Amino acid sequence: MYHLTFLLGIVFVWASCELVVIKRQKDRIYTGHVLFEVLLPMWSICAQYCSRVKVCKSINFISWNKTCQINYAEPGICSCELLESVGNSFVMASTFPEKLAGQCNGNDCNLNQSCIPNEMDYYCVPLPINVSENFKTPNEEPQNVALGKTCGQSSTYLNEHAEHVVDGLANTHHHTQREQSPYWWVDLGNFYNIMRIEVINRHTSGYRLHDLDIAVGTRLDDMSIFAHYVGPGKNHEHLVFQCSRYTAGRYVNLTITKGPEILHVAEVMVIACPVC
Ligand SMILES: *[C@@H]1O[C@H](CO)[C@@H](O)[C@H](O)[C@H]1NC(C)=O
Ligand SMILES: *[C@@H]1O[C@H](CO)[C@@H](O)[C@H](O)[C@H]1NC(C)=O
Ligand SMILES: *[C@@H]1O[C@H](CO)[C@@H](O)[C@H](O)[C@H]1NC(C)=O
Ligand SMILES: *[C@@H]1O[C@H](CO)[C@@H](O)[C@H](O)[C@H]1NC(C)=O
């Protein structure tokens, strides 16, 4: 991160007298993705500056020292880094009105430049830093957090181990013995806000999947029902169980409640965000 203390104020005259409405989030900042800082008098001028810098994806305006922080990313729905910060402002470039950039709208300045409107035209000036193209965009979207995690099952038939359910392959499956209530579980290794659970049924004998309880919990002996599937399933069916809000948990458990039956699915995906 670079600290720069020069004032670009004079350049940021509004290009037209039309009113543009910028969606600001008050009392918030997005930390950890600041590319550089410039001193500007107001958050709206900071947003306008951002609209003329291609690498700028969002801004923080720190009011006490009039600092405009240029972020190279914008927070996804899983972001833990959008923090409360009293008196400061956060704005995402994706919410900018088109008119904000004025003549700089659609400019062909390069990544290392910012665009400056000039009468009816514009010119390009170097950014205060050199931008390389390989920023890591943070992965703040919900992900399958079950992949490769520790898992187990009530019993194992032949070599069809519990791990096949979280190997990322829909053409492998686990297989319990025929039991009264066969089950399979996974330890996600950490707490997550679980958004949905997806199950891909086995490519044969899919009808054996029925009366399935899907439970989520903080410990294997303290589970609550997340979803229930009556079935019977079909071969290779992709089932999606979604709750209206996130369910926090570390363990996921699938149980056939009306046996005797065999539990054998190809894949279980637990789509979740980290708990902030
Ligand atoms: C302004 O303040 C913020 C936080 O209080 C700090 O992170 C930032 O570096 C400061 N900027 C300058 C230019 O002093
Ligand atoms: C920006 O400048 C750096 C350093 O000179 C250079 O490596 C990079 O290719 C430049 N990027 C663009 C898009 O011009
Ligand atoms: C960017 O890189 C160029 C060429 O490597 C160098 O001349 C220039 O001073 C650098 N600019 C900044 C702001 O670091
Ligand atoms: C989860 O796993 C346990 C065994 O650890 C089992 O007794 C229980 O019935 C399972 N099912 C549910 C829905 O919790």
From TrEMBL:
Task: Show where the Fucolectin tachylectin-4 pentraxin-1 domain sits.
Answer: 142-276
Task: Provide the alphabetized UniProt keywords.
Answer: Calcium, Disulfide bond, Lectin, Metal-binding, Signal
InterPro entries listed in its UniProt record = BG_Antigen-Binding_Lectin, FTP1, Galactose-bd-like_sf
Annotated Pfam families: F5_F8_type_C_2
- Which SUPFAM superfamilies would you find in this protein's record? Galactose-binding domain-like
Gene Ontology BP, a term? regulation of cellular defense response
PANTHER family assigned to the protein according to its UniProt record, in alphabetical order: F5_8 TYPE C DOMAIN-CONTAINING PROTEIN (PTHR45713:SF6), FTP DOMAIN-CONTAINING PROTEIN (PTHR45713)
- The lineage's top-level taxon is Eukaryota
A Gene Ontology molecular function term for this protein is: metal ion binding
| Taxonomic lineage | Eukaryota, Metazoa, Spiralia, Lophotrochozoa, Mollusca
The region annotated as signal peptide is 1-15
Q: What is this protein called?
A: Fucolectin tachylectin-4 pentraxin-1 domain-containing protein
Assembly and interactions? Homotrimer.
What is the protein's known function? Acts as a defensive agent. Recognizes blood group fucosylated oligosaccharides including A, B, H and Lewis B-type antigens. Does not recognize Lewis A antigen and has low affinity for monovalent haptens.
Q: Which family does it belong to?
A: Belongs to the fucolectin family.
- Which species is listed as the source? Mytilus coruscus
